[in-house]
Amino acid sequence: MHAADEDGEVSEPQIVSLVVLLIVAGHEVTTTVLGNTLTYLLTDGRDTWHRLGADEDLAARAVDPLLRGIAISDRDVMPGFFRRAVEDVEIGGVLIEAGSVVAADTMTANLDPDVYPEDWREHPFTPLTTPHLAFGAGPHYCLGSWLGRMELELALHRLPQRLPGLRATVATRDIAWRRGLLTRSPELLPVTW
């Protein structure tokens, strides 16, 4: 804000747009990631839940494997993030011409067995040898990725530490999902402890 006031190169509408983007993206993605992660941990990932509560270091190690494996996108609504090719590029023997619009499905890329041979569910605490794409890449890499990781790490340890008996009261198949243009998460996750 001060820099914009000093040099005048950033307009007020640009600042407002940036603030809205940061708040909406930070809130939307954080609640989606946490909701989807809790859905997994309180149903199919019970063993991982108990281990996270017992060891704070495991929570830090679990963040990236969980971000890689648990989708936040609503693949039924949008097949990926839309991008425009800035130059001709060949991928898998297919020429994508400059100016073409493509859908980049980061979830499928995050589950590519040639890149990630281990199942994230069987190895939730194993550090990744290749970065995941949950936060995007290149010029579209999420500005708040560090904050998202920190929030998830804190939740992954403190919730199971304080509520080790927390569990979902419904099966995953019975959860109603909030559907949107970019994300998908539980509308409600009934739990007990």
Automatic annotation (TrEMBL):
GO MF, one example: monooxygenase activity
Protein name, per record: Cytochrome
Signal sequence extent: none
Keyword GTP-binding applies: no
Pfam families, A to Z: p450
Domain of life, source organism: Bacteria
Keywords: Heme, Iron, Metal-binding, Monooxygenase, Oxidoreductase
Annotated family: Belongs to the cytochrome P450 family.
